[in-house]
Write a structure and sequence with these properties.
Elements: E1 6-18, E2 34-38, E3 43-48, E4 57-67, H1 78-88, E5 93-97, E6 102-107, H2 111-120
Antiparallel strand pairs: 1-3, 1-4, 2-3, 4-6, 5-6
Length: 126
């Protein structure tokens, strides 16, 4: 498998949890990046850390790595390999996939370790 190129986003991100019946916060819609997932158990939101939301629970100070895409749906193992490299380095992740690509959030305090680990495993980071 040819390993994809990753980029580092310089922004900081937060991950929020709301009740499953909560309204989607309107503040999100002005941002150029956000992710909203509703399940029967919760409403999860990933957004820039400077967007202040009144959520039930919030994890702040995340950094983001983006797999350069678009990725073909026939490709397999990309996210698994990245997650495995980071797990070996003891870097916890929060993964997000879209139609075109994958995003990997790591705590900002672990970003340098994550980048080093991925580079040591053959990934190019831009």
């Amino acid at each position: 498998m040819t390993k994809p190129i990753l980029t580092v986003d310089n922004a900081k991100f937060s991950i929020h949890r709301f009740s499953s019946t909560a309204a989607v916060p309107a503040e999100l819609f002005a941002a150029n990046f956000y992710s909203i997932t509703r399940t029967p158990e919760e409403l999860s939101v990933i957004c820039y850390a400077d967007i202040q939301l009144k959520s039930e629970n919030c994890e702040s100070d995340w950094s983001m790595l983006k797999v350069l895409g678009p990725l073909d749906f026939s490709l397999t193992g990309i996210l698994s390999d990245i997650a495995g490299c980071l797990a070996q380095a003891k870097v916890s992740i929060f993964a997000l996939s879209t139609f075109d690509t994958d995003y990997i959030l790591v705590k900002s305090s672990s970003l340098k370790l994550a980048v080093t680990s991925l580079q040591e495993n053959g990934y190019k980071i831009q």
